[in-house]
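User: Sequence in, structure out. Go.
Assistant: Echoing your sequence, followed by the C-alpha cells.
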Amino acid sequence: MAEKKNILTYEGLKKLEDELQNLKVVRRKEVADKIREAREQGDLSENAEYDAAKDEQRDIEARIEEIEKILKNAEVIDEDEVDLGKINVGCTVRLMDYEFDEEVEYKIVGSTEANSLRNMISNESAVGAALIGKKVGNKVKVETPAGIMQYKVLAIEKSN
C-alpha cells in the first residue's frame, strides 16, 4: 500500500526542514554533551541526569525519524498557483459563522501543519473537508463533535 501523501505549504516545508536541521546539528550535540557529562559523574545506575539525557536523546531521534518520514512523502502546494475560484489547500477563507454571528478566517493546510490556535485547519478535519471545493456564496453545514456548524463562504484569498 502506498504511503499517504503529506500535503504541505512551502511555509510548512521550510519549518520542518529548519526543525530537522536544528535537531540533527544542534540538539543531538547538546544531548551527547549531557550524556558525556553524566557518564563522567560515575555510577550510571542511580544517575538521574544520565537517564533524563538518554530519554531526551530518544525523543529527539524519534522526532527526526518522524520529520524525515513526513518529508519523504511530502507533496508541496504552490500557494501562488492555487485556484481561488474554489476552496483548496493553500488558500485562506473568510466565512460567516452563523452560530456566533461573526466572520472567521481559516487557512486550509495539510494535516501536518494544522494548528487551531493559528486558525490553520486541516483539509482532513470535519470543517476543512466540508469546505474543500466550495465557492464564494456557498453555504456549508458541518457535523463536528461540538454539534452542527453552519458557514457561508464570504471570500477565498491567497495565503500570506
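User: And one key feature?
Assistant: Helices lie at 10-40, 48-72, 126-131.
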